[in-house]
Design a protein that fits this description.
The chain has 2 helices and 4 strands, in the order βαβαββ. It is α+β, with helices and mostly antiparallel strands and 68 residues long. The protein has a single domain, classed as TusA-like domain (Translation Initiation Factor IF3, 2-Layer Sandwich), CATH 3.30.110.40. Strands 1-2-4-3 form a 4-stranded mixed β-sheet, covered by helices on one side.
Length: 68
């Protein structure tokens, strides 16, 4: 699993890191620690026609997505 750790970064950095990573096939774990970043990353994934699995752990969010 590929990991994108965007914790501690403010927008738009988490989205930009996600966009760069999802250009290749594979399963990705994207970590963010604020609500706005979570919303933007999930919206981007959905716009790509992909499904995002979201796991919330207190103030951190784990987003899992598979690019085929």
């Amino acid at each position: 699993m590929n990991k994108v750790d965007a914790r501690g970064l403010s927008c738009p950095e988490p989205l930009l890191l996600t966009q760069a990573a999802l250009g290749k096939k594979g399963t990705y774990q994207i970590l963010v620690d604020n609500h706005t970043a979570k919303e933007r990353v999930v919206a981007y994934i959905q716009e790509m026609g992909l499904e995002a699995k979201l796991v919330t752990n207190h103030d951190e969010y784990e987003i899992i997505v598979t690019v085929e």
